[in-house]
What does this fold into?
Amino acid sequence: MAVEDAPLASNAAPPQKAEAREPGAATRRLAVPGLRETLRTGLRGVLDLALPPRCPASGVVVARPGGLAPAAWDAIRFLGGPCCNSCGLPFEAPLPEETRCAACDARSPQYDRVRAALAYDEASRSLLLHFKHGDRTDLAPVFARWMARAGAEILDQADQLIPVPLHRARLWRRRYNQAALLARELGVVSGVVTDPTLLRRDRATPSQGRLSPLARQRNVRGAFKAPDSLKGSVKGRRLVLIDDVFTTGATLDECARVLKRAGAAQVDALCLARVLRARF
It folds into this structure.
């Protein structure tokens, strides 16, 4: 019952004037976050003067951390428009939405759909390498927003996000999993739950950089596993794998195979970038 609606007793004493008191702990607690934000903003300004933020692609000074210089922004090719309904390969002309590329028609992938935010080429390569190997983890929120736009339809239908896992030895050397960072930020942007425990990489595999498509498939075969204790969290769910770069799709294909065997109803994937013409 609201205070204004409370009945007054006939013999109730008139309300007493509240005594003036010093701000209590609750008031002081409310003031602390504002003070912290002010201090944080001030400290950021000092750091920006001493170490101005730079474009991760070109090294040019930019207005804010994670920002791109105009030339770098213009050079990046963002993907959108007509594409293969399965792997997301861009088409040069409008085609029916369900159209698949020749490669996907010849060998139906285990994943249902893949979408990527940008093309992996000379313009974007340094950007991704700084993120993956250069400790530029501050770029993850920016990249996640790009991915959310590219995969809006996939995210709207998703139950859970699953980052492609690293083997523990590689994670120890690199100190972070770039796919997990992207998944976490995508979860913030989209509101979809992120669960990195639903898939693990049990077998360490050599780098796939110089392997042919067939060798890549063999390289990752049996490398991933869905823990038996968590298969109930996978069954009947629409899952979205998160990774940084799509090259041939071998890794995503193997992850999707494992998750579907565990009972997933659908497995899509969302990547930051994709190779348009793989050369081996």
Remarks:
- The beta strands are 114-119, 160-163, 193-194, 200-201, 224-225, 238-246, 266-274.
- Confidence is low (pLDDT under 50) at residues 1-31.
- The two ends are 73 Å apart (CA to CA).
- The chain has one domain: 70-274.
